[in-house]
Design a protein that fits this description.
By secondary structure, the chain is of the alpha+beta class. The chain has 3 domains: 234 residues, Vaccinia Virus protein VP39 (Rossmann fold), CATH 3.40.50; 133 residues, no CATH class; 108 residues, no CATH class. The protein has 12 helices and 26 strands. Strands 1-4-3-2-5-6-10-9 form an 8-stranded mixed sheet. The longest helix is centred in the C-terminal third of the chain and has 19 residues.
């Protein structure tokens, strides 16, 4: 057995060991991210005495956060219970065997009999050192643990014998004198900001009944929460660091794939545009009232594109999602002055008041190449070139009313009342560059500016509206060869009502959730070290010293996804040890 030596800090906490009055050991098998160990530490007042994991990075991370634990970096089957316990009795044994070969998230991939059978190590501990209380955590599908059959040369679960091995496992623990019970519990019901649901099995041989913890949190809409009996679920929003930039999806060097774009559009539509009360985060901008309306999207499931509101608990975090599981998407909102939705060009404009900001447009066609400067809409369109996609566009000339709630007017309609200060202006056809030093655009009778790959700095309202129209138009955007669909009275693709005022979506940002945000959602405190481990490194002089070694973001996320929520671990252990701890005190 490979015992990992202890060493001096720095640590998550001051390394002052707690005293164990009962003399019973606490053991954490499969101690990965350290969630179960942290939960047991909260419940029992001290870290586990023994921790086992085959992953060196996981052991190193566990060691820097639980320095008084004796660590073994090897397979759980290579650890001999009698030797590591050295004659001391075991009070609590926690095990969270690899769930990936039981989970439905694995899909159609073949499974490993060895990985699926890791839980049998619990029987070995029960038969040799007889822990008083055994806890097992896994995915809900663990109840379906059964024999495998070969299909086209690959091992697959046998559907006809689903659950047979699980029942044998329970039967063996009972044969060894244990009472056994199991339940599915959600982390959000016990104070963690994640909806993560897992199967928890408890086995006891100490003569006491198995107890299950009572919920402390619940759905804010239920009577138990409204009456104050339970606290409302904690939300993803409280885990997010709003100071981390959320880059525009329109300025990426590498465009997002189609499925991701659809997820983003779905989230913006559901939780921003169509939401009666979108979640808003104010952002300070000089001279402007700017807000962001965030939501979350999932990158682990291509067949079922799920999006979530940030005012709900985060969904279950998986360990093996390449590039990360969850992304924050944020719609940038600017105040939409006037609050109007437009009127037909054939009606007179409303009365001109002192503070208007709107207008109407007369359109013409413009050619985006050569020397053409456009043509009227009642003339034939210019020759369509073989590679001319995007070469012809519509540009508007508008009579703008710069104040009030009036709608502007067609240039051919009667002019509205003239006030003391001139507030009317004719906006001619022009091209607007949404980046760089250009503030007023350029006329269309001059060569078009160089087209760049991304519009840096500034809003993206044209792209946003086209983006939302493409994915979530009334019946999806039609081809140019088809008749235009019915135009609704409200510009639903760019306007959001917040407290009865209209805001316009000017940009959409997206970023993956950072590891610290995911650990917060899982229930880890911010004091928990997640980004580095300590290793002995040999310097050029030949001297071995202890140094910090950074963990990659991928490693951090993997260990978070593999971890148990400390809140649930604490609740389950506390429910089954509260009486014993009172007696010991």
């Amino acid at each position: 057995m490979k015992r990992i030596p202890s060493y001096a800090g720095p640590y998550r906490v001051d390394p002052q060991p707690a005293l164990s009055f009962s003399g019973e050991l606490i053991v954490d098998l499969f101690a990965g991210g350290g969630g179960a160990s942290t939960g047991m530490e909260w419940a029992l007042g001290r870290s586990p005495d023994i921790a086992v994991n085959h992953d060196p990075e996981a052991v190193a991370l566990h060691q820097v956060n639980h320095p008084h634990t004796l660590h073994f970096c090897e397979s759980v089957f290579d650890v001999v219970p009698q030797e590591v316990c050295a004659g001391r009795s075991v009070g609590d044994l926690w095990m969270s065997p690899d769930c990936t070969h039981h989970s439905k998230a694995r899909g159609s991939k073949p499974v490993s009999k060895r990985v699926r059978g890791l839980a049998w190590v619990g029987k070995r501990w029960a038969a040799t050192v007889r822990p008083k209380r055994i806890y097992l955590e896994n995915v809900e599908e663990f109840k379906d643990w059964g024999p495998l059959v070969r299909v086209n040369g690959e091992w697959r679960p046998c559907k006809k014998r689903s659950g047979r091995t699980f029942r044998n496992f329970v039967r063996e623990l009972k044969r060894l004198g244990y009472d056994v019970d199991w339940r599915e519990l959600k982390a959000s019901d016990f104070g963690a900001p994640t909806i993560r649901k897992r199967l928890f099995l408890v086995a006891r041989c100490d003569g006491h009944s198995i107890l299950w913890p009572e919920f402390t949190h619940g759905d804010p809409q239920t009577a138990s929460v409204k009456s104050g009996q339970l606290l409302p679920w904690r939300t993803a929003a409280e885990c997010i660091d709003w100071d981390i930039p959320c880059p525009s999806i329109f300025t990426r060097k590498r465009p997002l794939v189609e499925n991701t774009l659809r997820r983003v559009a779905k989230g913006i539509r559901r939780y921003v545009i169509e939401s009666p009360a979108p979640f808003i985060v104010p952002v300070g901008r000089k001279g402007r009232q700017v807000m962001t309306a965030p939501s979350l999207t999932e990158h682990a499931n291509s067949s079922m594109q799920r999006t979530f509101s940030v005012d709900e608990p985060l969904r279950t975090q998986c360990a093996q999602v390449k590039g990360g599981h969850f992304a924050l998407q944020s719609a940038m909102l600017l105040k939409h002055y006037g609050g109007v939705v437009g009127t037909p060009l054939t009606v007179p404009a409303g009365t001109v008041t002192a503070t208007d900001h709107h207008g109407i447009a007369a359109a013409h066609l413009v050619r985006h190449f050569g020397e053409g400067i456009g043509s009227p809409l009642d003339a034939p369109v210019g020759t369509v070139m073989p590679g001319g996609m995007g070469k012809t566009g519509v540009v508007a000339a508008s009579l703008v009313r710069n104040f009030g709630k009036s709608f502007g007017a067609s240039p051919s309609a009667p002019h509205a009342t003239i006030t003391g200060k001139s507030k009317d202006s004719l906006v001619t056809s022009n091209l607007v560059k949404m980046y760089g030093t250009c503030k007023a655009g350029q006329p269309t009778d001059k060569p078009m500016a160089t087209v760049t790959a991304n519009g840096r700095g500034g809003g993206h309202i044209a792209e946003v509206r086209a983006f939302l129209l493409k994915y979530y138009g009334a019946d999806q955007a039609p081809h140019l060869q088809e008749p235009l669909h019915t135009i609704t009275t409200r510009d639903r693709f760019g306007l959001v009502t917040v407290n009865r005022e209209l805001y316009q979506i000017v940009d959409i940002g997206m970023r993956m959730l950072a590891p610290r945000e995911l650990y917060r959602a899982q229930g880890f405190p911010d004091s928990y070290i997640i980004d580095y481990v300590l290793k002995m490194v040999q310097e050029k002089s030949g001297l071995w010293v202890m140094k910090k070694v950074r963990l990659t973001a991928t490693a951090q996320v993997r260990m978070c996804g593999n971890s148990v929520s400390p809140y649930v671990a604490c609740a389950v252990v506390q429910a089954n040890t509260r009486k014993q701890l009172r007696e010991a005190a």
